[in-house]
Amino acid sequence: MADGGPTAGPYPSPPIAAPGRRGRPDGARPASWAAPGSDGPPSSAGLPSAPARATAAAPVAVPLRPLSVSEILDGAFVTLRTNPGATLGLAFATSAVLELVFTAVALASRDRSFWFYLLLQAVLGGIRLMLVVLLAGVLAVVVAEASLGRRISVAAATRQVAPRLPGLVALTVALAGLLVLGLATLGVVSAWLGVRYCLSTPVYALEGGTVTGALRRSRSLMRGAWWRTTGILGLAALVAGTLVLVVAVPVSLFTSVGSLTDSNGVPTTGGTVAQAFAGLVITMVVTAVLSGVIAILYLDRRIRREALDVVLARAAAADGDATSRAPVTALLATPAFAAPRPPGPPPNGWS
Fold first, then answer.
1. Residue with more model confidence, 148 or 73
2. 274, 260 in Cβ contact below 8 A?
3. Does residue 301 lie within any of the structural domains?
4. pLDDT value of residue 103
């Protein structure tokens, strides 16, 4: 017997595994291997199927699990980066129309007093807030598709939302009426109602139903999450405010120099045009960010209450053939298709 070699005899020694590998010497898994807890058939090579590998490689803007605060805020910017046409494109189209109307009104009222100018800016701010609520419903389709690793064009998103656009407009007007009524309490009731019903436009865009049904559905999803949602929306508003300052401060300094403002501090024609371009950029970016946050909040609430992540993960795994993909609105049309998530503490990192 050679020193250090295998022992000869009727019982040959088992093959020695290569360094750094465990189990079989060639590192391959058995043909019947499957991941623990998986409900699909085992792969012949111990690897995921082709659709699963393609889905895993696709960029996913929103993780399919209960989201943390940072993931919700980051998901809005990831959605903008991965779907710029369907997010910034839709925001630009709506913002351009509004800014054109705003500029025409500002030019027509240029000779009015400074207080009228301030009132006009307050009204425009309220209309921009309504635009955020409306676009949250439209971008909910984009965010839901992005959660499956899909990219959607402006035309495809418009086709999915177009049948529900009149209801979205009516729902936005109803929410604006509720917020205006709440101003009688110095905005306290307005803030409470705004957070409670902030998910109504994503609900209506993705699940359908009626306007009143969307309001009730938003109230149900927000049960027990008012303070958390208020904090997230506050952080999103802080981020949006920072973006506004980045654009607004240089424009204000520019318009305050020379002949772009009159003696009363009201912008001239040139100053109004410069402010219109700045307002277009601000409205486009800020509206897309805030609307994306609201849409992601909707998915997070459904994941936490109804285990929506399980259904979306199965849909993502079945996306092998692009021609057979069902629109995300078809997946989410029935609100109660998933069983409630079982009680108990979530896994680590899901808080």
1. 73
2. yes
3. yes
4. 76
